[in-house]
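Before a colleague's protein record goes any further, I have to sign it off. Would you go through it and say whether the fold makes sense for this chain? Take the sequence as given and treat only the tokens as open to question. The record follows directly below this note.
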Amino acid sequence: MSTPQPPVTQQPAPNWQAPSGSSYTSPIPVVRTHLGHAIASEWTKIKSVRSTMWTLGIFLLLVIGIGFLVALQTTDEDFGNVPYTVPAFFGLVLGQICLITLGVLVISSEYGTGMIRTTFTASPQRWRVLAAKLLIFFVVAFAVSASAIALVGLFTESLHSDTSASGTEWAHTVLKGALYVSLLGVLALAVGSMLRHSAGAITAMLGIVLVPAILPAFLMLSESMREIGEKMMEYNAPNSLAYIFELDNDGGGGNAQLGLLAGLTAAAIVGAFVLLERRDV
């Protein structure tokens, strides 16, 4: 027969207080985050995804491959009044689509997979994420496109430099050409941030690039719409690149076209930042 156990009384929890003057120190270092951390994160992302390698690889193949083929078909007389980088123009007309696609995918792919939630959890200040994406993409796009244009220019010059035809100075066409296609990619990134859909943003950007190049042929059939058609023809993407590469001496070196694209891109970036802060993920 078991003996009865005395009732268990619950003792009140001691009222513990930390000694006066002492504080808890976490073993995990706390670092105040800044834009540099977001830039490092976005650099890791853009260099580790396959879309970057594919789009930039095709871009280089188009610009350098077509540029070299065109350069091999040129003669000394072709470069009396145009820069040696002109063969790169023909590859850029197609290659700009690659940078547009990459610009959209840099941000829209995260919305498509839902990883953008993880990104914003790690970096609650959303403007840092978008600013880092814009900076990293622009630097990568500009470096790759400038290198491709310069390589085509050097190759072309090597074919014709031992002749009397010296061509015109072409360093500025490298910078302007790379800047133009890079701004197109940044514009695509901003549009992708606003639309949050890869197919929709790419389609919208193709419309921005292709419609002004096709529509003027129909607008100029009407006398009342001819002036609008001529302006669209002057500022569309292919003709803007032609002005930059001095294929039209009356184009002012493409400065007006660059200015228009820079203004449009800046407006899209402002819209992307505003919508990013106002909408839910």
User: Anything to note?
Assistant: Residues 35-278 form one domain. Residues 187 and 260 are 12 Å apart (CA to CA). The chain has a mean pLDDT of 86. Residues 126-160 form the longest helix (35 residues).
